[in-house]
Records
---
Amino acid sequence: MDGRKITAAAIQMSSTPDKHENIATAERLIRNAAASGADLVALPELWSCHGLEKVYRENAEPVPGPTTDFLGDLARELGIYVLGGSILESRPGSEKLSNTSTFFGPDGELSAVYRKIHLFDVKVSDREYLESASIAPGEEIVTAKAGVATLGLSVCYDVRFPELYRLLTLRGAEVLMVPAAFTLQTGKDHWELLLRARAVENQAFVVAPAQWGQKADGRWTYGRSMIVDPWGTVLATCPDRDGHALAELDLDYLDRFRAEFPAFSNRRPEAYDW
């Protein structure tokens, strides 16, 4: 990091139902991103296990747990901030799992935990998705500090709910984190559009690591991990393979932009009472 700047990497990978294989891939990709100069590295949604419903529960684990220990150790070794995308979390007293994002500082400590609020219960083409059948929704809006930057945490389907991102921004978020596993059908038309909209309306950077490729159950994920600036310009995008999008986030520019284009001071909260 240099002054009010931070270099972010959005990891792209195509996870399998094999947790050990995914952890090895994630470690390689995180190390590559750090070697490229990233201070902040973000993994996609369900990076540690993806593709077969029948193995999700057996791969779920508590937070903190072995997978978060791995991420914390790697953050400490590399001296970077790590957003652990999301994993499936088992919680005492709950029959359902949580789709949980974790965040680690360069000291390796787990400093923030966000559980996905909006669950993907939709029909896309001829396939129905019912995330709520096995996942419990989160209830808490979460921000985290990455050195000079304040992050707003979210996961995938959350991106379709602008009220979450406005609340994150009003709580100080400058960088909106959107780890995802968008379907190919929705992603090709909506992924970039939604990310750029969230950036523009909140005058914030967006870092969106994503799953790509065909999964073990036959469905396809869209990929195109990207980083967007507050003007809505795409700063970096991943092609259709494992890798990372890398960009410098200039927070001094963000401060100037918000001062010169004071959309937040033009808000009329008194008129928004539903």
Note: The mean pLDDT is 96.
---
Amino acid sequence: MIQIALILLVALTFSIVATPLARRAALRAGVVSIPRTRDIHIAPVPLLGGAAIYGGFVVALLIFGDQRYIRELVGILVGATLISLFGLADDRWGLGAPLKMGGQALASAALLLGGTQVQLFAQPWLNWALTLVWVVGITNALNLLDNMDGLSGGVATIASAFFLLLAAMNEPRQVLVGAMAAALMGGCVGFLRYNLNPATIFMGDTGSLFIGFILAALGVKLRFLGNTPAVTWMVPLCVLALPILDTSLVVVSRLRRRVNPFTSAGKDHLSHRLVALGLSKREAVLTCYLIAGACGLVGVYLTQAKLLEAYLVGGTLALAGLATIIWLERICPGGIPAND
């Protein structure tokens, strides 16, 4: 536990110190988010906050990480670095969707080569395919979630905390998962000091793609030797249920409006709809935090649940998510209240 505490503290300290430096660098390099009609900020805001999160994560693990897991860690860090560089290029110059997806596929390949993959099927190619879909899906989900001050960083902090708790609950304890979760949690908390409403810096794609990639890797790495995989495959889905819900809502909404969900953008996310229904921006973000925390608790419960009760609980959560999408599309279609 001392090692985990040191990793968290180093990542936190690095992020707190480096975020203002990243802000200055972004202003000098012109890596700034200019307000568009789909954005909620009204003045230009520097990007590159994600570089501070990335730096804190890497530095903490290089100093205090366990060298016994060096092969897997190298694969994860190579993938994380690749995806962060693609995010940086997108923040600076803007990349098309195919190029960004190609970068995510490369990062996923690095993860697979490092030995990090889903282990649910007897056929290796099915595990590789599911790993690719999961990593790309969660990476993009966190990227889409980064649409309001403090939202993506706060939800990532909550998810990291649950991954850290789950790693500590297992016997034997999963040192690599715990170390990465602590490093990501520390980096995100340090960044949130400057990103909560009103934000003075955004993480940009440099941060959101990196965070999504690491959370996806944590979900793949997590193992529960005390329960059957027929149950525990649902745990990472619960921990990351909020970004999955937000992405599903956006995709369904845009397809209903005959809009390409992958090349378009708008104020049709969960957070935007909560604001449209009367919440302030801070209240909307806090509501998302509460949902993320509640879903994480369901994930913790599932680690100890029997097969039947696990599927009853997991199915209920899935139905609640589906009902939420239908309800929001009915009363606030496309992010606009139905009575407007």
Note: The chain is about 70% helix and 0% strand.
---
Amino acid sequence: MKLKTAIYGAVFALTLSGFQADVDEYHNNWPNWRGPNADGVSLNGTPPTEWSETKNIKWKMPIPGKGIGTPVVWGDQIFITTAIELDQKATEEAIKKLKKTSPTFVKVLGMSGTTENFLQFVVYSINRKNGEINWKKVVREQYPHEGINDNGSWASASCVTDGEHVVASFGSYGIYCFDMSGSLIWEKDLGDMQIINAFGEGTSPVIYNDKLIVVWDHEGQSKIYVFNKKTGDEIWQKDRNEISAWITPIVIQIDGKEQIVVPGDNKSIGYDLENGDAIWTLSGLGEGPVSCPVFDGEMVYLMTGYASTKIVQAVNLKGAKGNLENSKALIWTNDKNTSYVPSPLVKDGKLYYLKGSRAQLSCANAKTGEIYYEAMKPDGMGGAYASPIFANGNIYIVDRRGNCSVIKEGTVFSVIAQNKLNDNFDASPVVVGNDLLLRGYKSLYCIAE
């Protein structure tokens, strides 16, 4: 009996050790655009706080075309996408049709978001050690059916990986699953999205265990899909009563069940991962949600900052079911200085977020909503689409003009370093080990001491 108990104990210890190794490996990578826990936090990274075009640049790799998806990393592989204009010109009829998708106010502002040429949609694997290309896969060459906001791209979504698969979504131009060596496993075409005002597409896919989640919110019939990540086979889909949105969902575990949290214009919903049933709903975010939710193990934080609609909702999801409006689950709200494009991050009981689409940082008590400081702007910082991240006790904020401020984590606003690169940045920073990855319009930078 003692021998049997010892054997069981040894097996359990080995299993637990293997599980911990898997967890550690996951946290030592950046598998999706918001990091290992989808909250903007690097638990183990130790990146530099100072750099320039001539200081602490490990390597710099020019990237053709335009893509604004955040890099994702597993081991020594970095995955990004881009859309490259080809010399092949579309027919006059196709060009005319595309230009009609751009509303008058976009044209007046010079934000044409159109092209006369075919696009080449490309997935790259780049070596994290030296910036060299491991592999390049052209997945489609096509003339787009719809324009984009000039601030956007036809390759706006980030890839997602689990160390065995890497999934790249170009939205209307296909979803593609590769193995780590670049062999195509499966591909899927969900049809054409119709985005309000031709602002462009942007939601990223999510991998959770054996499932791939895709949110498809647009002016047609919006949906949420769950596929088998290994085969691409559909597990379930649900219609959504939503219009265009650009939110990447998160998957959380609470009350012994996994659920997909999807903020929305009409309602934010927690879906049962297994069957798509709605566990809870909550209205109040309003028009144009872009900012993605974050979760601290008990509370989820939903946020928008579009036009006059500014709100953050802190929701305790333990035991939450049904319509949560006016319920005790809605712990606190705030309607000032909330994020529009950038997503918040949550760390050590503090919620950090930018104001609108500007590099102005606020910090609040995540449990109570008490504001420690709000809309603080580091000198020289401008507009920001990139989301802030946390690493090694610091908050990193990147603006659209290549400025990056490093701010000490805590309840007091304290800038410890300011840096500048000669590029424009909309993708969010990424930290893996000692490396800070910044994806600009022209180049991908790896910054390390």
Note: The chain has one domain: 31-447.
